[in-house]
Write a structure and sequence with these properties.
Structural class: alpha+beta
Radius of gyration: 28 Å
Distance between the termini: 46 Å
Largest sheet: 6 strands, antiparallel
Strand content: 5-15%
Helix content: 40-55%
Number of domains: 3
Strand order of the largest sheet: 6-11-7-8-9-10
Number of helices: 22
Length: 519
């Protein structure tokens, strides 16, 4: 529509009157109002008028639009395909997002679920797509996925295959999960890191809140959270609820099976296993249940009623509307609700403990040895270090004495180690400055004043860059990071005189902000 970009820009300008043009463009991009290509063109100086008028032309009829836009339009067709429908998709063995694929596959078994999926997918003509999450806990509801992101995801092997619409949901959920973790509302589920060999934001439910509730993809799509029923050896789900679920077209369902049976030993021909989510296609009380395994989205698994009811562990129910949700919740006994809530909270605590243990194991086995070698290289010994700042929380490591670890590394380190800060990285720079808070000042004295700029820069620049990387990781504003680096390198690059107070002050400020974000 001609004039649309100009209109949107003016709306954002009124909303954020003190923001620069580029900052407003970044906000529009974040909200999914414009594509990354459009944002790039605006920042490079292309007028909004020209963008709007080129947009108003069809690609086929526009006279040399590639020349007009400097390459914005491509003559080739997009390499992605979005039809706003879910077709058979196949989960990657490297991701652990069966919950996500199964939830979407279950919605896809109902007419209202298909409409919700269709409305959540807004493709553009350049191979990208905007995923709309009505149920987002954040102000941001739209998540834009570019054609390149889709193609890169396919090459990585970390996401599903077979349907670009499904991959777009995975990537959008990943972005949403990262934002939840960044804002502190949720914690990332790191339980599967070792199993899949990558830091995933969508494995095992993606992220969870303090009560153990993980991301609910059907709730994100429809705006109505699902209801979960736990089946255990101690409690039984009433037949009245199961009969209500049977053949009900106003609900979509996902189930998981007992991991206890996995430990005890399943039959090798058993079509299901624990620790995995399956979409329910047909649920016929007393007769059979038909499932879709996300690993094989084109096949169905039919289980007898007895097999299903004796093996099922949980059922997650996605309701069509709030009335249906109310009807479902009425049929669930309070004992089942309490048991499920307690199980979720126990899971959250277990994940928290495992996350702390994993981080502290990394600190002791990798980060601290690197920091120790840096300090020893400069002849800095235990009496000059502040070990008390390092507090460990996990039961295994909380009594570990870092001075003993340090001395052990000292014994193993050659005395002729060359002084260097090249091993400083975003993971160990905070620990380094905690143990030796005056390290920047020490480097000044080590080089006998700030006159020798070249050698000093070689020692200090790795610390500046590492702090900038850490700041970026914890989502500190890009402008703040750029200002920090600019001020520090201005002093390090000074020809006549370097003001060490500026660098020390800037390092202290950025370090405080990093620590605040990490808490």
């Amino acid at each position: 529509m001609s004039g649309e970009i100009q209109r949107q820009y003016e709306t954002y300008q009124k909303r954020y009157p003190l923001r620069t043009r580029d900052a407003i463009v970044d906000l529009m991009l974040k909200d999914g109002v414009i594509t990354p290509q459009t944002a790039k063109k605006i920042k490079s100086g292309v007028s909004l008028f020209l963008l709007d008028n080129v947009y108003s032309l069809s690609i086929e009829k526009a006279e040399s639009p590639t020349n007009i836009m400097g390459g914005y339009f491509q003559n080739t067709k997009p390499k992605t395909k979005f039809n706003r429908k879910i077709e058979p998709a196949f989960q990657s063995i490297k991701q652990g997002d069966c919950w996500l694929l199964s939830d979407i596959n279950s919605l896809n078994q109902t007419e209202w679920g298909k409409r919700a999926i269709y409305n959540a997918i807004i493709p553009d003509k350049y191979g990208g797509v905007t995923i709309k999450f009505k149920g987002s806990l954040l102000k941001q509801k739209n998540f834009y996925i570019s054609e390149k992101e889709i193609l890169d995801a396919k090459k990585s092997g970390l996401y599903s295959s077979g349907d670009d619409d499904m991959i777009a949901f995975e990537l959008a959920t990943e972005k949403y999960s990262k934002l939840l973790v960044t804002t502190g509302l949720y914690k990332r589920n790191s339980h599967f890191d070792e199993q899949f060999g990558n830091k995933s934001y969508i494995a095992g439910g993606g992220a969870y809140d303090k009560n153990g509730n993980s991301i609910n993809i059907s709730g994100l799509i429809t705006g109505i959270d699902d209801v979960t029923v736990a089946f255990t050896m101690d409690t039984k789900v009433p037949p009245k609820l199961l009969k209500y679920l049977s053949g009900n077209h106003d609900i979509a369902m996902v189930c998981g099976f007992s991991q206890v049976k996995d430990v005890a030993g399943r039959d090798k021909n058993d079509p299901v296993h624990g620790g995995h989510a399956y979409a329910i296609k047909n649920f016929v009380y007393g007769k059979f249940v038909t499932l879709i395994d996300p690993y094989h989205g084109d096949k169905e698994i039919k289980l007898s009623w007895n097999k299903f009811i004796n093996d099922v562990w949980t059922i997650s129910i996605s309701p069509k509307d709030n009335k249906t949700k109310y009807e479902v919740e009425k049929l669930i006994p309070s004992s089942l609700k309490n048991e499920r809530d307690m199980a979720l909270k126990r899971m959250a605590k277990r994940n928290d403990k495992m996350d702390i243990l994993r981080k502290e194991e990394h600190i002791i086995n990798e980060i601290f040895p690197q920091v120790s070698k840096i300090l020893l290289g400069f002849g800095i010994y235990g009496k000059d270090l502040n070990f008390d700042n390092i507090k460990l929380q996990s039961d295994i490591f909380k009594n570990t004495r870092f001075d003993l670890v340090y001395n052990d590394i000292k014994r193993k380190t050659p005395t002729n180690t060359n002084p260097s800060t090249t091993e400083v990285n975003k993971d160990n720079v905070v620990l380094l400055l905690d143990i030796k808070p005056d390290f920047i000042e020490f480097l000044d004295k080590y080089k006998s004043g700030w006159g020798n700029g070249k050698e000093k820069k070689e020692l200090i620049s790795p610390i500046i860059n590492a702090l900038a990387e850490k700041a970026k990781e914890v989502e500190i504003n890009t402008n703040i990071i750029n200002e920090f680096k600019t001020k520090c390198f201005k002093e390090l690059d000074a020809v006549l005189y370097t003001d060490e107070k500026v660098i020390k002050s800037e390092v202290k400020k950025i370090l405080q902000q990093i620590k605040a974000k990490m808490e």
